[in-house]
Amino acid sequence: IVVAALGIIWAAGHRIFDPQPIEQVGLGLALSVGSSALNGLLAWVMFRAAKAHNSIALEADARHLVTDVWTSAGVVIGIALVSYTGWLWMDALVAIGVALNILKEGWHLIWGASQGLMDEAVEPEVMAQINTVLHDLSISHEEVGADHVHIVRFDHVMTRKAGQRRYVDLHMHMPADWTLGRAATLRANVEHALMKAVPGLRATIQLLPNDVEVHLDDPK
Fold first, then answer.
1. Please, which of 22, 85, 157, 188 could form a disulfide with 170 given CB 3.0 to 4.6 Å?
2. Does 76 or 125 have the greater pLDDT score?
């Protein structure tokens, strides 16, 4: 679509200085409006599918259809302006405006696809869901003993995403006198809660006693 936009700008640039009368206006408008409505509906459906499946390919195809909608809208506006003013160069000027919008969409797609190849932190809303789950679990597993408090807590939470996959690594601290079986059961519950809140999430949880701290930035 970037190449198509550049082609439109090239052609429209020549038409500004050499305007030509518009032919078959009625048929052109009918085709533009009809195709715009169909492309708009299909793009809406594909955007929903792209969000549900976290697919940049589906989003790219949907944005391609949206550029067709904008192109059709530009055609209608251009023809209307030419018919109202009699200025033939207005058609080419609107075409350049539409092409610039297509260029913007193309750049957005290129940038989004390139970021999908890089490891980066998960989206802020996904991070908020993860923090909410961990906060709820840390409070719900608080146990008050005779002379001290046992509490399950989480720290060193790190996330990344690669393509469609999302990952979270964290430390889970718990009382040192818990059995391995009890600790493993709790970890499984935490993993299940995280994956339920964020479908497709892969969680790696390291178990540590409450009195052990890990210093990841320690040079030694």
1. 157
2. 125
